[in-house]
Amino acid sequence: MVVRTSDCCFCIDCLKLISPKSLANLVFPEGAKRDSVVKRITYKSDDNDYDTYHPEADSSYLLQHAEATRFNLFTGFQTLAEREDSFKVNETVNLHCGFYSDNGGFKISDKDRRYMRACKVVVSTCAFGGGDDLYQPIGMANSSIDRVCYVAFWDEVTLSTQEAEGKVIGDDDMIGKWRIIVVKSLPFVDQRLNGKIPKMLSHRLFPEARYSIWVDSKYQFRRDPVAVLEALLWRTNSTFAISEHGARSNIYDEGKAIVQKHKATPEEVEVQLTQYRQDGMPGEKRLHGLKALAEASVIVRELTPAPNHFMCAWFNEVVRFTSRDQLSFPYVLWRLNMPGMSMFPVCTRRDLVNSLGHTRKVKPLTQTNPESSAS
């Protein structure tokens, strides 16, 4: 039985967590009782996709296609027709969702993969290009220690940067509470886009996990993960929880802000918003009863088919268009209208994390996986 809000909660601002005593006796639920249409996800790969979906493709076609987009052997080469199909909500959904080819990059050792397969609840972050330090999580109750994996994905640049500052991975592959996973052959030149892989595709990286909590690298996570799952998912019968945006509510206003802050070029944003207008995307402040814009630095979710479908579609949008995920979130929200989606207020996000900021400028990649085209 899941402990409900009537069980002695303590309140810090607007995040209500169950008491440590109740947390120690908490039993994981079987899953959210959501009547989702999507029951099964299958992923396109070069084993079953190339001949079926690209009978006309040859090496020159694929080269031209890759140069026109950021799709590559990691993502697969999603066409506009496949993009449209990916938003159809059926019992079985087949779509691109990264890890398209063994030659696509994002290489993880077998030892690390074994560790990741054993995780049932995971809190994850990443730092690629040496831009951020690793902030140790705080606030975990003793009763949660054996139930939660903390995993930080680094590339070799971050590894060398951290080692130069005396932060060395131990013989147990840990630094403090974090298990460090060093990724090789990142598939994109754009480090922000590389960071979307662990952020959005945790269901592919942790295939046996039931729940994941994503935390951007500029934050220190400061609450018990199991208590957070109870508060933001189980108590509200949700499968996906994300923070509302604190400054804006409209996708088109967000596009203007991204350009003004030089986070993407005007041309990139215009291409994306032109497509969204063409698709009929409304400029509403609320979509399906939720605020249209999200602040995506903390994402809490159950790793079940409907949320996994949402994240695959969202990932493909940031590959196709700009890597500013806050711009594509409202579109995916509008198209999928996923049951079990919830958004929490900004004050809850502030209770979940301490904002410590970026440490140094990210170093761009000098080369990518030679088997994989990039932006």
UniProtKB/TrEMBL annotation:
Pfam family, one: TOD1_MUCI70
Transmembrane domains' residue ranges: none
Residues covered by the TOD1/MUCI70 glycosyltransferase-like domain: 66-358
Name under which the protein is recorded: TOD1/MUCI70 glycosyltransferase-like domain-containing protein
Species annotation: Urochloa decumbens
